[in-house]
Amino acid sequence: MCCLLFQENTLPCQELSSSVSWLVLLHYIIAFFRAGKDDDTIIGPHPEKGADIDGNPVFNISGKTTKINVMEELFALMIGIGLSAACGFRVFVPLLAMNLAVQTGHLEIAESSQWVATPMATTALEVASFLEIAGYYIPWVDNMLDAAATPAAIIAGTFITASVMPEMTPFLKWAIAAITGGSVAGVIQGATVLTRAASSFTTGGFGNPIVSTTEAGGSVLISLLAVLLPLVTLGLILFLLIWAGRKIYRRFQKPQAPPVHP
């Protein structure tokens, strides 16, 4: 399907179909570093070698037996990437969604990030989300907001992904979070900047409210789907990355010189 829609300048379908495999591989990389250097640690879903009856890996970490639920960790990572993608449209809306999801028991985050789920943080994120959404409806101010939103989206995407990841060494956690969540947020935010710039140039800014409404709605929708339907959100993110990649590629692609006929 993807190949039929995007035959030129797109990722091969084989790469898209292997995304889940990369997530599984990433899980075992995370598990390896969580296990540390304990010689008794065995990684792999085997009932007799470091796994429970359901096939979930069991690790010996600092003398304590820890069971790792593969599907729960994969879904947690999907939620983090989904919320990071929503940061590409609006920075504070996904943070507010994570705040509410944690308070209602739909999401668990790291102990170091629990401050984001406090009532005070809820109020602050509600105000910030309102101001951010409203600011994008002011002509030309929206373009100035993009200058600050681009790095902010990358930081927010990295933070959200790191918050939902399992405990591990800080360097590894933040490195993986930056590569996954930060990159996804940055790519989508970059595409929205180009879209708004094109709208400002062609309509003098009068078409920007339509772009802003679409972005705000997309941020809310993806944030909700990321928490409720993470697997569906992952497929939607792949589509958005293809769209964003094509848009950025076309923006920086050098125009081909017309052929010279003798």
Q: Could you provide a short overview of the structure?
A:
This protein has 262 residues and is mainly α. The protein contains ten helices and two strands. The protein folds into two domains: 9-68, no CATH class; 69-252, no CATH class.
Distance between the termini: 42 Å
The overall pLDDT average reads 76
Name the poorly predicted regions.
1-22, 32-53, 57-66
Query: How many domain regions?
Result: 2
Report strand %.
Answer: under 5%
Lateral strand order in the biggest sheet: 1-2
Q: Which overall shape is indicated by the principal axes computed on the Cα atoms? A: globular
Name the helicity range: 55-70%
Backbone structural class: mainly alpha
How many helices? The count is 10
* SSE pattern: HHHEEHHHHHHH
Please give the number of β-strands: 2
Largest sheet: 2 strands, antiparallel
C-alpha Rg (nearest Å): 21 Å
